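User: Show me a protein chain along with its predicted structure.
Assistant: Here is one chain, sequence first, then structure tokens.
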Amino acid sequence: QGERVAAAIQQQLVAALGLPDRGVKTASFYVLQHTAMAAVLAELAFISNPREEALLSTPAFQQQAARAIAQAIGSLYGFGPEQELDPLLPAVTKFQQAGVIETPEYWLQNAVAGRSCKGEYVARLLKNMASKL
């Protein structure tokens, strides 16, 4: 049953994070073999890859990965879809992955109703976006 869970999680992670699909692997790790339930060991990205290492350290990436794992498990076991907690998260994550922004937390906290973003940050955002066109 672990392989079924792993396949569902892998599919969601690849779709949500846009990282390469390295497939589902099997191994005789203690943490996988000595459980009374389905067990999965997920490697989201690798610190040996500088781009992936940078992503791993950001809360936006971590939240998106956690959400993808939760959605995979939920759909596999019949739980309904979760409500989107932060509608900006997919866009902010995409901007970060494209190198448009470096501080996703700033944008998630300030680019909302009742808050404001500093003009110099918005100017830098626009310049970075234009350079990607």
